[in-house]
Design a protein that fits this description.
It is a single chain. The chain is α/β, with parallel strands linked by helices. It folds into two domains: 250 residues, Type I PLP-dependent aspartate aminotransferase-like (Major domain) (Aspartate Aminotransferase, domain 2, 3-Layer(aba) Sandwich), CATH 3.40.640.10; 133 residues, Aspartate Aminotransferase, domain 1 (Alpha-Beta Complex), CATH 3.90.1150.10. Helices cover 40% and strands 14% of the residues. The chain is built from 15 helices and twelve strands. α1 packs antiparallel against α3 and α3 runs parallel beside α10. 47% of the residues are buried. Bound molecules: ligand 3LM. Ligand 3LM binds next to α4 and α5. Its EC number is 4.4.1.11.
Length: 402
Amino acid sequence: MRNNRRRVIVLKNYRLETEVIHKGYDSQSFQGSLTPPLFQSSTFTMKSAEQGERRFAGEEEGYVYSRLGNPTVTVLEERIAELEGGEAGLAFSSGMAAVSATLFGLVRSGDHILVSEGVYGCTYGLLELLKDRFNVDYDLIAMDEEDHIRSYIRPETKVIYVETPINPTMKLVDLELVCKLGKEFEAKVVVDNTFATPYLQRPITFGADVVVHSATKYISGHGDVVAGLMVGSREFVNEVRMTTQKDIGGIISPFDAWLLIRGLKTLPVRMDRHCTNAVKIAEKMKAHPKVKDIIFPGDDQFPQAGIVKSQMKQAGGMISFLIDGGKETAQRFMNELQLIKIAVSLGDAETLIQHPATMTHSVVPEEKREKMGIGPELIRLSVGLEAWEDIWADIEQALEKI
Ligand code: 3LM
C-alpha cells in the first residue's frame, strides 16, 4: 500500500499459508490496524491541481479514482499475485469480468482460441459472443493427446484457454503439456484455476501466462461475494488495468475486496477440510448401489490420477456423480435433500448441489453439452465444511427415496 508513513519492507519469502495472511499489507503503515483498512472511497483528493496533472500523466504514483486503483484492492491484488507465483494481480467485479477482460486483452479480430473440452457455461457464452461479433474463432477440444492438440493449432492461435479441473466434468488438463505447446507456438496459456485455487495448484509454476479465478468460490469461501481475479506478468496486468478493465469497467468494490482479503486468510485450512470431506463422501457414494458412477479426481481409479499427482497438492472438494434415471430422477433426488442446498456456485462452507445440464451449463447447446460429458444424469456436488457424516447421511436418505 502506498502511504507516507514509516514503511517496513518485508523481504522474506514466506510459505503460502503465511502469505494468505500477510502479503501486501504492512500494519505499521496504517496506525497499527491489524486488518487492512477498508478504503470505501470512490475518489482521492489531490494536494494541488499540479499534483492532479502529474498523477493523470503517470509522472507521480498515487491513487486517483477507484476504477483505476484503490488501496484496499491493492492489498488483495498483491496477495493473489504472490499466492499464484505471478508478477502482478488484478481484481474484478466477477469471475466473468476477469475472464472477459483477459480474453479481450489477448485477442484481436481474426485470432483463434484453443479451449479445453469443457468450460463454465458463461465462458462458453463469451466464446460464442467473441465469435459472432468480433470474428474470434475457437475450438473446444480434448487435451489428452499431444498430437491431437497440435493438429488444432493454427498460425492464428493466440490463446490456449483451459480449466482444470473442468467445471463440471472434473476432467483434468495436463498443464506441463499445454504450457510446452503454448511456448512452442507462441500462444498465451490462460488457466482458470477456480476449482483448484493456488493452494492446490499453481499453473504459473508450470509455465502458464495468465491465471483467472472466479473469486466468488473458494477464495471468498463464504458465499457472500461475487468477484474475479487475474494474475500475470506486470506488463500484461498493467495493460489490462489501463485498457480492458479501465474502459469496460468491471472493477471490484473496495468492500468486496476487503471480504476477499478476509476469506483468503483461511483458504488453506478450508481447502484441507473440503478435500478430506470430499474423499469421505466419494468413498461412500462409490459403494452405494444407486450411484451409477462418480467422477472425482481423488478416487484411486480416476483415469487421470497421474495428472492429479503431478500438478495438484490434493484433489479438491468437487465431486460429480451420475444416478440412473435421467433428469427426472436427478431432480427427484435433489428435492429430497434436507441439509444440502440446491444452488449454483461452489466452494462455500455450505454443501451445494446443482444439475449442470439444466442449471450452470444450460446455455450450452445440448449436442455440445453431451460432447463435453454433461448429460442429464450428471449431478455436481460442492462438498462443504460441515461434518462429513451429516453430509453423507443427507445424501443417503435422499438416495433411499428414489
Ligand atoms: C458455477 N461458476 O456454479 P463468476 N470460471 C469458473 C466458474 O465456475 C465460474 C466462473 C468462471 C458458477 C457460477 S452459474 C450461474 C454460477 C470455472 C462460475 C464465473 O462471474 O464469479 O460467477 O465466475 O459453476
